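Example 3.2
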Amino acid sequence: MGWKSNSNGDVLQTKNSTCFIGSSVIPLINKLQDIFAPLGDIDDRLTGLRLPQVAVIGSQSSGKSSVLEALVGRDFLPRGTDICTRRPLLLQLEKRTIGVGDNDSREYGEFGHLPDKRFYDFSDIRCEILVETAKEVGVNKGVSDKQIRLKICSPNVLNITLVDLPGISKVPVGDQPSDIEARIRNMIMSYIKQETSIILAVSPANADLANSDALQMAKEVDPTGTRTIGVITKLDIMDKGTDAKNFLLGKVIPLRLGYVGVVNRSQQDINNERSIEEALAYEEQFFCDYHVYHSLSDRCGIPQLAKKLNQILEHHIRNLLPTLKTDLNSHLVAVEKELRTYGEALESNAERGAMLLNVLTKYSEAFSAVVDGKSEAMTTKELSGGARIHHIFQSIFVKSLEEVDPCEDLSDEDIRIAIHNATGPRNALFVPEVPFEVLVRRQIARLLDPSLQCLRFVYDELIKISRACETFEMRRFLELRRRLEDVTTRFLRDGVKPAERMITNLIDMEMDYINSSHPNFIGGTKAVDMAQMELRAMQSTGEALSHPGWRQAIIDEMTALHASGTWELVPLPADCAGHYMV
């Protein structure tokens, strides 16, 4: 079957039509989409190449699914009263002539995620769409922007590439996310804002076209209407006495690409299993019966819509081909240049093993060079590598130890209470050792935090060194580089716990044994000797002050100060004769 025009200008299906429009450029774009689809998540540069396609938008229950099924001529889309399209469906319609190509004249569908499986039963296609949708968004009514790619090959279609987008929803229903409207709008905008996209805005005729969500969104990104096609559905259920003539003529909301009016199958028709062939016959009879549409035969019916889409898409692709070719060539040059930097391909396992050993050896040498200060990429802006580690130990760590005051939070009252607690109910003749050890251990424990902080600083610097040791060979193998960083980080991280235990054990050892034999330790005997020396010094000072000559000199000095008015001498009572109070 094919398409042809009747005497009224309508495009109809025929049995033996082998010449069809867009047989060259549209399949070419489809092949590019097949190539780019698995690479889009790997190479972000490919996301900048937006291929021409038709984005189908409309509110829920506007008739989008019926239009797409009529274009294919088969029932294959999920149906229901709630949101049905929950993931973008990239639909590639490819015309296959009977007995040409793989000699398979049957209609079939082929999914991008199942490239080796053909679906000849279109009800299985519907089930696979539901299953694949549930895998991504679950059983609720949420949406996802991850595409489902479906190619339908049939002798009964024209070459068209469409993207069926979720219907615009206003209010969340059931367990839908509260931001369902914003999600759907953002998803639709990401497609229709691209200049390479043709917008197929579907609006029902039984609603006010001026309030059409699809046309409003299309106008936001295409204010001049140069790449928007309007589709008015459900013409057969308009109020009696009304028609869509002015809408189809573009007198209400003008569009450069115009409008096409269609008649959909109702939900009751679908429930009664009314075939699409019967629906197309009913649509043709409807437009024949209503004389108001006789002069608009080129804008009415699914066949006219298919022809219009095919012609517009082909023309659109031909206009974009020079730019697309330029972009592809520039990307190709960049990729080839990057490919040359990776060197020759490694064929055998022996070559791969030798290359791996070479990469690991150079990585180890680079790491050692940075630690030893022999790296060729030495910086002059800041300390790094081994010099930074040396600075951590000799400056930061030593300074933090010096800032620890051994007598902080330790008052005479604390010592007195500790001694009393150690004597129990008896009076002690000598100072017990227990309170001394308790107080000293508490102060030694304060050395733990600076030591652990030093460990963390050294660990951070080693991690920094490991990430800076990038050899030229590692740039070829990004996955090896990532794995090597993971292994090195895990190796260093695994060494942190043993180091923490060692530091803690060292502090515990110092706390368990107080070395009172150390030359710098002030024990009881040495403390008594120092006290006696201070006492003798104080006594000698007191004897000197009690000498008559010293006393007379002090009195003369104080008298002079009194005479100058600085001090005032007041005689003491008679029993303190010869003494004065200042």
